[in-house]
Amino acid sequence: MSAASRILAVIVSQIVLGFVASADDVPALVPYPSKVRMLGGKSQTQSVKVLKDASLGSEAYRLSVRDDGVEIWCSSSAGEFYARKTIAQLRSDNGTLPCLDIEDAPHFSWRGVLLDESRHFFGKDVVKRILDRMSDYKLNLFHWHLVDSQGWRIQIDRYPELTKRGAVRPMPDWEHWIRDDGFGEYGPFFYTKDDIREIVAYAAARHIRIVPEIEIPGHSRAVIMCYPQFSCVSMDVFMDMIRTSGKYDQAGAVCLGNDDVIRFFENVLDEVCELFPYDTVHIGGDECPRDNWKNCPKCKARMKAKEIADASGLQSWATAHFVKYLADKGRRTVGWDEILQGGLAPGAIVMSWRGHEGGIAAAQSGHEVVMCPHLYCYLDYPTGEKDDRCAYPQFCFLEKRRLPLEKVYSFNPYEGMPKEHHRYIVGSQSLNWTESTWSEKDLAYKMWPRTCANAEVLWSGPGARTFNDFQSRLKRCNSARWD
Ligand code: ACM
Ligand code: ZN
């Protein structure tokens, strides 16, 4: 076909198909690929050929769309999966694809979403729908917050009480800021081991790995409700502390002087590692009150025996213990940025949530960092939209905690960090804490499209594109239809 007749054919086919697209049109892709070259014209092909290119990274791909077929080049099934996700977003309602070439690879390797199912439990079907949507935006990590003071949600054979008593909230208003309007007793809600295996397989089919979180040593009231002997204080004192609990959940710390507590968490981690085939396990470490340890004979004895100077050192000792325990099982530990206090064992990954500072310090001492400062990444903060009818806890209403889409998009994981440390930042995630989120509808409203903004920052790298450009693609993107 001559060049002139080819152009004529393209024009005719566009008229026939009802299109007036020009070669400059930006395809409605979210996240946007590294390089896109529009060739003009549409293809109606259904043919897709997959070719190996070992020089590409495991999640990278190249894609060409022509009249007579689509070709994907990749080095692994993840690259092919992402290429097919791109094709799905490119396909118009009438089935055509724009003719183009794409080269694409992610900027960050940790592109995550956290779901808190302790405060409210959503169940398998909701989790699967989240995993589906995550994969549409090339997110590859599901951080599953399965235990906290407000409920234990994972079957552990050795400790059945955890999912009998620990998975039930005895009072609807366990704390004044947790609103369970209309519910009586909440639970028992938890995942059986078969449920977990099913979700792990479902996620793996979408190239999503799961990082389970077992909170140690704070946020552990549900554990102590089941095993009162794991507290530094008597049950009477424990219940008093719950009734008068302030921000830092004084009752929620387990006794680190008690060897049975250490064995308990080791045994729990053994069963968790059997269920999750990935190399990383999260052990929490955040917001742990230490006052009980200062007056507890067992904790004081531990500090003396190990020559630990203070209660903060006691937490560092426990963290180091579990980092080593998991390393001996071939796993890496992730913890919230508090685990940096008092020094941190090599190899542990720091999740910087209170701001960028923890991550900057962690990178300086050679630790990998997941940078997820709350002011940019916590989706339990209000959207600021006029039609936002969701409930939020009181503490989320501070002006600086308003988190509109544009602010999520403006997030720079490297902010304040010297260039030579950028390599320690493995990525980020958006976080769905659910103290006041108990319906799938509210959860979805809070998650989407803000999670898309975080996904594009993580795939493309901070500052690679503008918010206006993102917004205009998002409006047209065929996987961003929320109802
Ligand atoms: C956290 O929000 N306490 C990690
Ligand atoms: Zn103690």
How would you characterize the largest beta sheet? Answer: 8 strands, parallel
Q: Provide a count of the helices.
A: 17
- Tally of strands: 15
The percentage helix is 25-40%
| Contiguous uncertain segments of 5+ residues | 6-24
Strand order of the largest sheet: 10-7-6-15-14-13-12-11
Regarding CATH, which class of the largest domain? Answer: Alpha Beta
What is the radius of gyration?
25 Å
Mean pLDDT: 91
Structure in words:
By secondary structure, the protein is of the alpha/beta class. The chain folds into 2 domains: 3-104, 2-Layer Sandwich (Chitobiase, domain 2), CATH 3.30.379.10; 110-447, TIM Barrel (Alpha-Beta Barrel), CATH 3.20.20.80. It has 17 helices and 15 strands. The strands form 3 sheets. An 8-stranded parallel beta sheet has the order 10-7-6-15-14-13-12-11. A hairpin with a 2-residue loop joins β8 (147-148) and β9 (151-152). α3 (124-136) packs parallel to α5. The longest helix is centred in the middle third of the chain and has 18 residues, at 311-328. Residues 6-24 have low confidence and may be disordered. Acetamide is lined by residues 286-287, 336, 353.
In short:
The chain has 17 helices and 15 strands. The chain is an alpha/beta fold and 483 residues long. The chain has two domains: 3-104, Chitobiase, domain 2 (2-Layer Sandwich); 110-447, TIM Barrel (Alpha-Beta Barrel), CATH 3.20.20.80.
Record the SSE blueprint.
Blueprint: H1 3-16, E1 35-43, E2 48-52, E3 61-66, E4 69-74, H2 77-90, E5 97-104, E6 110-116, H3 124-136, E7 141-145, E8 147-148, E9 151-152, H4 161-164, H5 193-204, E10 209-213, H6 221-226, H7 235-243, H8 259-275, E11 280-282, H9 291-295, H10 297-305, H11 311-328, E12 332-336, E13 349-352, H12 357-364, E14 369-371, H13 374-377, H14 405-409, E15 425-432, H15 440-447, H16 450-460, H17 467-476
Parallel strand pairs: 2-4, 6-7, 6-15, 7-10, 11-12, 12-13, 13-14, 14-15
Antiparallel strand pairs: 1-5, 3-4, 3-5, 8-9
Bound molecules: acetamide (ACM) and zinc ion.
